[in-house]
Design a protein that fits this description.
By secondary structure, the chain is of the alpha/beta class. The chain is about 40% helix and about 20% strand.
Length: about 220
């Protein structure tokens, strides 16, 4: 892990204590509908006990939605921040969730281990090759008929929101984050042969679905 990533990890260890409140203020109460939109768009609806991996899981919002949607499934939360994982334990039923600490660019799981892999609003924080490596690792661990669901920010059209969006991208310390967010589906199509796009009802997020095989639907 680079020194930059280690610095980000320390930042999120500290930020974890107020992260949920920050997201509530930023999302204006829409964070619940966004995460449920992600989970409801998942493909393993015909599997009663899917294996699900949530990468960069943060404090567990997507995990919580997955547990409710797939009560018989195995849900694994993966994050590089110990502080974030501690918050997951506080908000979810620990008996139904496995938590693993590590780097998204190097997943410690066997090939084709999961029916569903999710990652919400996190890829833009990775830089260059680290982001590509993370996508390649997601492709490696998802099963042939499985799906990788990636929720990312939309670029706001409203001038005020766009201004604050640009400030947030600048705070990442590189033009790389903004370039990724505005690059459409290109980064995903460079790794996955089948990629599709959907938009959240709020219009603030886009959902990219990546697959190794075409959908049977």
């Amino acid at each position: 892990m680079t020194n930059l990533r280690k610095g980000r990890r320390r930042y999120y260890d500290i930020f974890s204590s107020v992260y949920d409140r920050f997201i509530q203020l930023h999302a204006h109460g829409e964070e619940g509908s966004t995460r449920h939109f992600l989970v409801e768009m998942a493909y393993p609806k015909d599997i009663s006990n899917p294996y699900i991996l949530d990468i960069c899981c943060g404090t567990g919002a997507v995990i919580e939605a997955c547990v409710l949607r797939y009560p018989k499934g195995l849900v694994v939360g993966y994050d590089f921040s110990h502080g974030m994982l501690r918050k997951v334990r506080e908000r979810t039923d620990a008996r139904r969730v496995a938590l693993v600490e590590g780097d998204a660019a190097v997943l410690p799981f066997a090939d084709e281990s999961f029916d569903l892999v999710t990652c919400s609003h996190a890829l833009y924080e990775l830089k260059g090759q680290a982001r590509r490596s993370a996508l390649q690792e997601m492709k490696r661990v998802v099963r042939p008929a499985g799906s990788v669901l990636l929720m990312e920010h939309e670029v706001p059209r409203d001038c005020v929101r766009k201004f604050f969006f640009n400030l947030r991208m600048m705070a990442m310390g590189s033009d790389d984050a903004r370039e990724f967010v505005t690059s459409g589906l290109t980064p995903f199509r460079e790794v996955f042969p089948y990629v599709s796009l959907a938009h959240s009802q709020s219009g603030k997020s886009r959902l990219v679905t990546c697959r190794k095989e075409p959908s049977g639907r």
